[in-house]
Amino acid sequence: MSKVAIIVLHFGDKKNTIECLDSLKKLNYDHKKIKTIVVDNSKKNLGFAGGINKGLKIGLKDKSINFFLVLNNDTIVDQNLLTSFFSQIKKDSADILGCIISYFLEPKKIWFAGGYLNKTFCFTKHPYLNKPLTSNIQLPKSDFITGACMFMRREVLEKIGLFDENYFLYWEDVDFCYRAVKAKFKILCLDQPLVYHKVSSSAGTEGSNKLSNLRAYYYARNAFIFMKKHNLPMLTGIFGQFFIRLPYYLSTVVSLESAKQYLKGVKDGTKYYFSS
């Protein structure tokens, strides 16, 4: 049985973290083979990437750890999460895995079931977002796995490195998976609902996909960082930010201030993209 490091990033309500850790205690796995690392991001906010990287570095020092699970603190896991991941790995040797994640408040409603990346216009999509959870769901190929629950082999981290901290918050999981695919690693999303997500509780809007002030800025800015870093098509990429993402996300903000933060993110992202 392989040893696994589970990285839980604490931010916001302690109650969420405690409930997440309680669910991990119920995992159907040899707990002597689990090393749970909780990173406290509330005192000094390193961002998602920085906080997760801090935990991954601790885990990587232990050479007996062969697998890593990155987990949001506002999630509750099914007891069969790890056994399901290892069962899938035995079937097709996947390197990065995720699973169907449903809403904690609405467990029969899908939040994540694989991610799609449009490289032409540089936008991402959860194709199954808000769709009902059915027993015969068949998932298409996934371009990325959400950082809310990402399981990976040690070899992935050793070859492509850690999460890119330039993003701070959001898009770092897309970037990580994009680099992994370029390095010939295989990504797979299980067709099983194994995680329940409270969704944005750390941003103060539990159960909602609407953009809070915190989310809006980084959602807007970070697509430009991704475009520039990976040399995606400029004209269609810029078009995608102003004529696809901007209208869509402005319709999902929670307040006027959130809209201002999104526009600030677009401004700063554009400035970054065209800087030398």
Automatic annotation (TrEMBL):
<dbReference type="GO" id="GO:0016757">
    <property type="term" value="F:glycosyltransferase activity"/>
</dbReference>
<comment type="similarity">
    <text>Belongs to the glycosyltransferase 2 family.</text>
</comment>
<keyword id="KW-0328">Glycosyltransferase</keyword>
<dbReference type="Pfam" id="PF13641">
    <property type="entry name" value="Glyco_tranf_2_3"/>
</dbReference>
<protein>
    <recommendedName>
        <fullName>Glycosyltransferase 2-like domain-containing protein</fullName>
    </recommendedName>
</protein>
<keyword id="KW-0808">Transferase</keyword>
<dbReference type="InterPro" id="IPR029044">
    <property type="entry name" value="Nucleotide-diphossugar_trans"/>
</dbReference>
